Each structure stands twice: as C-alpha cells, then as structure tokens.
Amino acid sequence: METNMVFGNDLNLKATELRLGLPGTEESEQLQSIKNNKRSSSEMDLASQKGTGKQESEAPAPKAQVVGWPPVRSYRKNALTKRPESDATGFFVKVSMDGAPYLRKIDLNVYKNYLDLLKALENMFKCTIGVYSEREGYNGSEFAPTYEDKDGDWMLVGDVPWDMFIVSCKRLRVMKGSEAKGLGCL
Amino acid sequence: MDPNPKKPNIPTPDSAISNGSTHSYSLVPDEVLEKVLSLVDSHKDRNSVSLVCKNWYNAERWTRTNLFIGNCYSVSPEIVARRFPRIKSVRLKGKPRFSDFNMLPRDWGADVNPWVVMFAKVYPFLEELRLKRMTVSDESLELLAKSFPDFKALSLSSCDGFSDDGLNAIATHCMSDLFPFEESVEVAQIMVEAVADCNSEFVLRCREISVSNVKASSEEGRYSTEKSMVSFLSRFSTSWTYSKVVLLDVSFLEHEKRNLTELNIQDNGTEDIGGGWLSCFPDNFVSLQVLNFASLNSEVSFEALERLVSRCKSLRVLKVNESVNLEQLQRLIVLAPQLTELGTGSFMQELTPRQYEDLEISFRNFKDIQALSGLWEVTSLYLPVIYGACAGLTFLNLSEAALQSVEFSKLLAHCPNLLRLWVVDTVEDKGLEAVGSSCPLLEELRVFPADPYDRHHRHGVTDSGFLAVSHGCRKLHYVLYFCRRMTNAAVVTIVQNCPDFTHFRLCIMNPGQPDYITNEPMDEAFAAVAKTCTKLQRLSVSGLLTDLTFEYIGKYAKNLETLSVAFAGSSDRGMQCVLEGCPKLRKLEIRDCPFGNAALLSGLEKYERMRSLWMSACNLTMKGCMLLARKMPRLNVEVIKDEESDDSQADKVYVYRSIAGPRQDAPPFVLTL
To answer: What segment(s) does the record annotate as region Disordered (chain A) (predicted)?
Structure first.
C-alpha cells in the first residue's frame, strides 16, 4: 500500500482514493489521457499500465469488446470459425444413439483423431463400435457411427481425413441393428 | 434526346479580365480550348483549370464528362446539374469511413435516390455509376435500370439498402431497347435498296427485324401486316429512312455498344438479399465484361450463371460467391479461359482424383490471369490446383482463406510476379518470411486478423514478420498490418528498407499498447515513418502514443492527406500540431483520444480545405461544436446523439465543408449546429 508520509499533514487522500488499477501502481500520464468511457472495461486500463515495466506473465484477461475496434469490416468472417479444432471455446455437436431416450453433446475439439472419438462414443453409450476398415466399414459390429455433413448427407465416420471430418461434421448418429449391418454389407 | 446539348453562345469579352491586360489565353478560341481540355482527365487538374478565369471555367464545365464527388453532402444534385451539363460517368461517396466498423447508426443517410432522380433528368446518356458507402434502395436501382439507355457500368462498394428486387431490375433492363446502331444503319440501307428495287417482301422482312427490337412506340412500329403495301412503302421513302439515320447524330465510328458491361458489388454487408437476380439477365444478353458478386451471401442459380458465362465472350472479370462449389467452378472456368481476374467460390468439397486433375488443367489454361481471390475454406489439400495460374499473377487476395505458413510458403514459390498480396495472419511471421523471399516485386501487403477480438490467443504476426517483408520487398509502398506486438526499432528499420511508403496503416490491436520490448510509447516508430517516407499520403497510427507522435507528423508529413488516430495522444496539443502542420490534409478521423474543444477550434481555417473531420469519444462538448459552427458557416457541424451520453457532451462529431448548406434529410439523431 502506498504510504504518503511525505504529505504528513495531508489527509492522505491519495492512499484511500478509489481508483482503477492494481494497488501499489502509479497512475501514469498515459492512463489519465485514455478516456475511460463506458464502452471500455477496466482491463483495458490495466493493459495500458505496462509503462511500469512489469512483465505480462499472467494469462491476458478476457478483453472487453470496444465498438468498431479493431477496425475490421463486419462482413469479414472470422476465419477461425472455419477451423473448429482450434476454437478454444469448443465445437459441440449433437450425438444421437438409436434407441436412446435423449441425445448427448460432445466437443469435437477434444479429440485428436478417430480412435479417440470412437473410444469416447463407446464409453458414452456403453457399446462396442469396433475397428474401421475402408472396405467393410464397421462390419462385425452392431453399431455404425455416422455423421451429417455440410451438404446434409449421412456419411460413415472414418472415410475422410480427420481434418476434413472436423470441418464438415454437423452432427453424429450412432446407428444400431440391421440398419448398421446394412452399411457393412455394401 | 440530344446526346450533345449544345453550348449557348455566350459572348466572352476580354474586359472580363480584371487587371485589364490582354492575356494570351483570352485569344484562344473556345473550340480549341475545349478540345484541349477534353484531354484533361484528372478531376484535381480540372478543378484548377476552372479557377483560372471565367472563360476557362465555362470551357471546363462543358467538357467535363467524369464527375467525382468525395462527400455526397458537400454539394447538392441541383448545383451539380446546373454546373455540368455533359456528364457520362459518376463516382459518388457517402458515409464517413468509420461506418464500415458499425460506428454510425442505421439510417444515417447518404441515400443515392435524389442523385439518381437528378441524373435521370439531366444526364440521360449516363454510362457509369460508381458508389461507395451509400444507401441504395431498390427503387433507386429500378429507376437507374430504366432511365439510361447507354448505361454500361454499375459499381456498388460498401453499399446497403438494396435487395434482390433492385438487382433484378438492373439485370432485366441490362440491354437497351433500341436497335444497335450499326445494325439499324445496315437495315436502313438495305431497306432503301429494297424499296428502290420494289422488293416488298424483303422490305417487310427488314421491318419485322427492326420492329422486334424496338419496343418504344415510334411511328413505324405499329403497322399490322394487313395494311397495304403501298401505304407502307409511302412511309418508307428513301428520304425518310436516311432522315432517321441522320437524326441520331452519332458518327458510325464513335458509337459504342449500348449494353451493360459491368456489375460490380464489393464489400457488401452481411444482409441476405436473395440470389434470384442473376436469372434475370435476358438470354440474348452477351456484353458483360465484369461480374463481381463475391460479397453477396445468397445462392444464385448455377444454371443461369453457367449460361451467362458461356455466352458473354468478352467476360474478363468473374468473381462468384461462396455458394459456388469446386465442381461448378470447374464448369465455369472452362467456359472462360480468357479471364484476367477470377474470384473462386468455396473450396470445401471432396473431389475425385479426376476432378482434381481437371481443375488443375483448367487453372493452367488461364493465359492472361492477373488476379485471384475467393478461395473460401481452402485447405492444403486443394490449394495446389491453382499453382498453374500463379506465374503471371499480380494480385493474390487470400483474405478469406486462413492459410498456415507451410502451405502458404509453397504457394508463394509459384508467384514471383506478385505486386499486391492480401493475407490472413494465420500465416504468421514464418509465412511473411516467405513473402520476403519469394515476392521481390511486391508493392502492397495487407495482413488481416483471423481473430480480431483475441478469443483464441493466437500468435498472429509480429514485428519480425513485417521486418522480413521489408528486407525482401524493397518496392513496398502500401501496407495494412494488424498485429499484437510491435517495436519502435522494427518500424525504424522497416521504413529505412522501404522509404517509398505512400500508405502506412499499422494497427496494433490492443489499444494503447507500448513497444513490447522497451515498454516505451510507439512515438519513435511513427516519427520515423513521417520523417523517412516523404511521399506518405495516408497514415493510420496505433499503440501507446503521446503528443510527440503528432508533433513529428505535423513537422514532417508534408504530403499527408488522410490520418486515422485511435486511443492516442496526451493533450489538445497533439491534434493542434497536425492541424497546423500538414498542408495537404484532407481527411482526419479520430476516436477515443483526449482532444477537446481547444484542439477542435484550432483548426478553423483548415476545415474548409479538408473534405471532412470525424471525432468520436473525445472530449468535445456541444458548446465547443456550436462555437465552431457559428464561426465557420460554410461548414456543416453535425453531432450524432447517443442516447446514453449526457446532453452537454458531443460524442460523435462529423464536420465537413459544403456548398449545399445543412442536410435536408438528416435523421432525428443527427443535429446540425
């Protein structure tokens, strides 16, 4: 805490002053000049106090969004939404299982490849999906994992490279019984 | 209607010259002066010419055919109509630039309709209309479509307000109802010969051809075939036929095609406007040269598009939207190997090896391609199909394709002749190193942020990427760079490597961020830019900046025309330095800076020499703005009221010179002081 012994006779208002910023830090010239309007958050003022020479070792606080900043046009789509595997907030898809009373949701970002995904599905629904083969799909298993792609078609999980699957998968469905066997017989 | 309204004979006495001496230019006959002036294209030069004397003013206004209006509210349609009688092409800009970033409320203005109404009355031979940041309603587009038989080119950049219906009208009326001139002359001559030979059958056939093309109710178009041959022939005498030809008053050699050649829609908002318009082009419409609908969201009829491309043999620019997939793209480009600019659709499709090969071959078949864009969702898997088209490429726009550095570097190895490159910062510094090594001729680089709101904490590009480009691309003169880290030292070196910058737009995305190594303000960086780049016309500053930056800008940036400032400066002095120091300043846009009334009022005389000033979230009050308005009556001082802010603060201020007086169409939240 700041001690203002220098201002002996003063009421030491500075020490008890209510202001934004970490305790013990100086309010720099620059901070005063950046207008603290209702749109920016206190985090922004924090960021501008780097003039104190502190290393920014902590993870950056979630920044408040200021209207019109950075100056990018709104139509310019966030290119990252096209690559959900790098989306830190998760890419959740619905998973339905034939015969189950309700659906589940999983985050595709969590898995690195098909093996991980299938294991997770097996765990979630207490079933055995088995091993994928290009020729026979999941033949031999009672279950077949399928997904709906961007065009609305139902595809067998495992045919395309994982990267491509991640981007085109909209939802999953684990088929069961004769329908599932049908795929394997093709 | 007469395409060339004749200038009235105004006597031009030499005594009009005030100082009495006889200047040599007063002896130049008007016709000669006009002939010479008709060769002057630049509107800046023309504005200078018009100031010389009354003679030259008149000669200039009669010979101006291209109209450029940088701020639609600086002048009114009536004033323009009175001054310029012979306009064939118009470029018109509306809203202030910050409207691109949602800083202007909806319905602010810049409606093109009063202009279109005026053009329809006064410039019926208008050929080109290019609009930027204007609101264009469907009614305006319909009026446009129907009013100009010679209309050739429509360009809408960052415009809004229209939908499928408006574009529908443009497509439907893209062909003039009149018979193409060459053909009408031919038909007239043939008819005359047939009449002389008494070949009535032939005459009737010619008449049928011409009638089928003339929809207007002209006197010759309404005969039924029952009417007697004699009465028909009596109307079609030789003299009558030739008189019609003569009346058109256009020489055979000068006349150009009367149909639409360009439809160019760029940077449209995300509104879904529908895609039915493309199907409205008539089946016999073949003159299209430029078609750009890349920024429109909706799906268009691919069959209609394919037919259109196949019959428009002069098509040189084709930019489709994301709804067109790779298979469809392939079908289009085999029909148009003559393209000079191509904007692809989406690359997200699984191709068979055969399809991949076909696409590769098609791209290789482009002999004249200079610009490539689109490439939505392209992955490293399919990016190589375009390699065959890259050798001659001068402009590569990857701003919709989030490439990684590896695939990007491989691609660049095929593009040695690039002059302009737009990329997303997913390529990172490593990708920019490849730019430096592969593209020595590069003149323009734009790096856009994939993640502007920093939700995923990606690395993006930094000072080292920019440095790498500057080392390899010494001809760089235009840069737009979004980054999260920058140092003064890097920028100093960059401008030493590339002193010819005319446009330097650096955006350090965290507001008020200092040099990340020294923690100093970024003043030295922009001082170096101002000092070293003597040709600098446009500058955008960012990062932690004190008044020092603006002192340097005012002192050294003598050619600066446009300055954008955000979250910078320490006091009024900063803005004052710029207003006092930059003689060529035309556009100044400021947001979130500590500049107040004193700064605003220090630029009184300056604002009349500028196009506009924008200040938002600064320290301006209504009192200060009212004072400005009172002192400078020829400026429009507009305050956009924000419901939340209190009444004494002026949160968004837009100041511009105008000879049209205050806006007549201002919405309730815009106060003109």
So the answer is: 22-65
- Which one-letter amino acid corresponds to residue B346? S
Which whole number is the average pLDDT over B106-128? Answer: 94
- Inter-chain Cβ pairs, chain A and chain B, closer than 8 A: 135
Q: Do B102 and A67 touch (CB under 8 A)?
A: yes
Of A43, A58, A65, A75, which to mutate for an interface test with B (greatest number of B Cβ within 10 Å)? A75
ipTM score: 0.79
pLDDT at B19 over 50: no
Residue of A27, A28, A34 to mutate for B, most B C-beta atoms under 10 A:
A34
Domain boundaries defined on chain A: 92-180
d(CA A59, CA A56): 8
Tell me which residue in B448, B455, B569 faces A89 most closely, judged by beta carbons: B455
Band of pLDDT at residue A14, cut at 50, 70 and 90: low
Rounded to an integer, what distance in angstroms lies between the CA atom of residue B549 and that of residue B518? Answer: 17
Q: Kindly report, residue by residue over B626-659, the tens digit of the pLDDT.
A: 999 999 999 999 999 877 667 788 999 999 999 9
At B26 the pLDDT is 58
- What's the pLDDT at A108? 84
Quick: pLDDT tens for A25-72.
444 333 333 343 333 333 333 333 333 333 334 444 445 568 889 999
Domains of chain B: 1-64 (1.20.1280.50), 181-250 (no CATH)
CA–CA distances in Å: residue B257 to residues B125, B179, B185, B288? 13, 11, 14, 11
Encoding tokens for residue A111?
């898995």
Chain A nearest CA to B567, separation (Å): 6
Which of B399, B544, B593 shows the shortest C-beta gap to A30? B544
Angstrom distance (rounded) from CA B619 to CA A177: 71
Interatomic CA distance for residues B654 and B588, integer angstroms: 10
How many residues are given for chain A?
A: 186
Q: How far is B293 from chain A (nearest CA, A)?
A: 14
**Closest B-chain CA to A47:** B513
Q: Please tell me which residue of chain A has the smallest CA distance to B377.
A: A82
User: For B175-203, what is the mean pLDDT?
Assistant: 68
Distance, in angstroms, between A78 CA and closest chain B CA?
Answer: 6
Q: How high is the pLDDT of residue A91?
A: 74
The reply to whether residue A37 touches residue B592, judged by beta carbons under 8 angstroms, is: yes
Are A67 and B567 within 8 A, CB to CB? no
Instruction: State yes or no: cis peptide before A70, omega within 30 of 0.
Output: yes
Instruction: Kindly tell me the burial class for residue B356, based on how many C-beta atoms sit within 10 Å of its own C-beta (0-12, 13-18, 19 or more).
Output: middle
Instruction: Identify any residues that bridge with A175 across adjacent strands, giving them in sequence order.
Output: A144
CB-based contact B455:B431 (threshold 8 Å): no
Query: Can you name the CATH fold of A92-180?
Result: Ubiquitin-like (UB roll) (3.10.20)
Among the ranges given (B232-236, B295-299, B308-312, B629-633), the one the predictor scored with the smallest mean pLDDT: B232-236
Whether residue B349 contacts residue B328, with contact meaning beta carbons closer than 8 Å, is answered with no
Residue contact A71–B270, C-beta within 8 A: no
